[in-house]
Amino acid sequence: MASFVLVVVMVLSLAQVSVGSRRLMELYRPPPSDQLTYHQGSVLSGDIPVSILWYGKFTPAQKSIVSDFLLSLTAAPNAAKPSVGQWWGTIDQLYLSNSIAAANGATATRVLLDQQVSDEACSLGKSLTLPQVEQLAARAGGKKGGIALVLTDEEVTVEGFCRSRCGKHGAAPDGDSTFIWVGNSAKQCPGQCAWPFAQPQYGPQGAALVAPNGDVGVDGMVMVLATMAAGTVTNPYGDAFYQGAKEAPLEACTACPGVYGSGAYPGFPGNLLVDATTGASYNANGANGRKYLLPALYNPATSSCSTLV
Length: 309
What we know:
Number of strands: 15
Strand content: 15-25%
Radius of gyration: 22 Å
Strand order of the largest sheet: 3-2-5-8-7
Distance between the termini: 59 Å
Structural class: alpha/beta
Shape: globular
């Protein structure tokens, strides 16, 4: 009898510990320094001209995939839903509309495709350092308040590419414009920078999905470009919307790595739309009948990842 009573007491005690632990977990809220919050800095607003420098060889078809994506952000209101424009509108809703710029009457963003130049001969070589990428960004001719976009082809290696980054964004030295660099990973690391359109390099292995525009490397570039564009407009100078250390921040998309649809988990991008004709996976419609796969956006209000599908 004494043994039975002891067992009952132990079970009740363990139950109380379990309930108490659960309550502690439910009550826990990360400190503000560990959350993606607004640090009162500048964001990009109004007209955002985007100039492009194509470094290396890109076919006209590859260029049109990227150009149509940029046009889809704010210049394709009649695209089928869910759309690239809806995704961009979520950035405005979750971030830009809550900035000092919005409080001061800044107008909504409008992405404008500006000049494009090509450097097929790779004048700085096919192995670039990050400072050289910034040189190319300056050559792209970024306008004040705009973005200079540097895109490198599948033969070009860039410092840190495939090892620690698939792209990068930053600000010009004069602070008047910003830049984005994205590389084509088709030959170097598609499993890292073009997943889920290629087998992942690490972690759970699943079948690669069909790329919506039939080009694993460039469809992967669009996913990275979307991530960098979201980070650029919401945290252009490193003092606006971010989480963690300022030198290595998590931003609007990078706070939701690997999430593209509802129900995502490591190794599974989420529930996506599938084109009945091509079998390609996507979650956003764009200009000229294009389809794209765009990353989830972190919702600071709910501490969750917001997806189009």
